[in-house]
Amino acid sequence: MPPFKRQLQEKLKHALSASELELVPSSFQRLGHIAIVRLKQELVPKKEYVGEAVLAIVPGVKTVCLNTKKIETEFRQPNIEFLVGENNLVVVHREHECIFRFDVTKLMWSMGNMNERKRMYEMVKPGEVAVDFFAGMGYWSIPIAKHAQPGHVYAIDANPDAIDALRENQKLNKIPKEKMTVIQGKCEEVAPTLGHIADRIIMGYLPAPTFALTAAFHTFKPRGGTLHYEGVCEEGKYDELLQDVRDQGTSLGWNAELLHAQPVKSMAPRKWHYVLDIKVTPLDWDEGSMGKIRKEKESKQKIRARESHTSAVPAQ
Ligand SMILES: C[S@@+](CC[C@H](N)C(=O)[O-])C[C@H]1O[C@@H](n2cnc3c(N)ncnc32)[C@H](O)[C@@H]1O
């Protein structure tokens, strides 16, 4: 039995029945001074007892909250309820030498993505332009801007609360404006207005951000780049996610080649969260001659357009 569960049971042995003691949680999520627990339905009437016990057991915890149900809204706000302790729900969470300040009742944080956040910033090459499509309070953008040496990071989110936190976290992490631009709006509308700027696009939105793929393809540089496409699928069946990217890409003139499929965390029995690292290149791109074929095609198109324009002009 995990030590946390044993400690809880010991602390609660006079407050809960034997069957209730069996149901106490075996883990919790820690964000700064806050511990967040999930409880089985039968234990919810005893939530304050459990909260007080967590407060007493875990060193440094000043506030205990209850995670009441799954995240379902468009902006992915968590369902967090204050239980006991200090009523301060704004957390200062540190990870990979970055600081993230946010209200745990307004913005979500996934502990399961911790290694992935490191893998991501380690992949970014010096000078690259990265566009973070669902930036939240900066889970990817802040570590990339802080640890990699990107040319620029564009962090886009539709939720005003996420934007406020992003701007604050940019300041807290001393990331200059020349390195990172925060943009409020729907990425499928905003990203294409940036032009063809991206070497790397991060699309972190579950169950899968298929709806924003067209915008992503429009935002890549003419030679393409790397797409990090997140999604949920059955264990090992990430080909379905890749196929969505390929279908959209082909219809827009892009090739999508899988470089790596990274399992991130289990979401439900046999359901996994994956990140697919995908190399995106124009269908007619010739690496060796730096896009020679595409250039030739474009110049042929220009000649044809000029010819048809000339022939449409009536003879004087
Ligand atoms: C679950 S968070 C993702 C956080 C982070 N990117 C990750 O992968 O861990 C999803 C974020 O997407 C934002 N969002 C939802 N729809 C959006 C849209 N159409 N355009 C931009 N942001 C959107 C939400 O506000 C939320 O902050």
Verbal overview:
The chain starts with a helix and ends with a helix. The chain is 32% helix and 28% strand. Helix 6 links the parallel strand 8 (152-157) and strand 9. The model is unreliable at 310-316 (pLDDT under 50). The protein is α/β, with parallel strands linked by helices. Helix 1 (3-12) crosses helix 3 and helix 4 (114-123) packs across helix 5. The protein has 2 domains: 22-88, GMP Synthetase, Chain A, domain 3 (2-Layer Sandwich); 111-283, Vaccinia Virus protein VP39 (Rossmann fold). A 7-stranded mixed sheet has the order 9-8-7-10-11-13-12, sandwiched between helices. It contains 10 helices and 13 strands. The protein binds S-adenosylmethionine.
How are the elements arranged and paired?
Layout (H helix, E strand, L loop, with lengths): L2 H10 L5 H5 L6 E3 L2 E4 L9 H11 L5 E7 L9 E7 L4 E6 L2 E6 L10 H10 L5 E4 L8 H7 L4 E6 L2 H13 L7 E5 L2 H4 L9 E4 L9 H7 L5 E10 L4 H14 L1 E15 L2 E12 L9 H21 L4
Parallel strand pairs: 2-3, 7-8, 7-10, 8-9, 10-11
Antiparallel strand pairs: 1-2, 3-4, 5-6, 11-13, 12-13
Helix pairs in contact: 1-3, 4-5
The chain binds S-adenosylmethionine.
The average pLDDT value, as a whole number, equals: 90
Structural class: alpha/beta
What overall geometry do the principal axes of the alpha carbons give?
A: elongated
Largest sheet: 7 strands, mixed
Poorly predicted spans: 310-316
List its salient traits:
316 residues; alpha/beta; GMP Synthetase, Chain A, domain 3; Rossmann fold; 2 domains; seven-stranded mixed β-sheet; four-stranded mixed β-sheet; 10 helices; disordered C terminus; binds S-adenosylmethionine
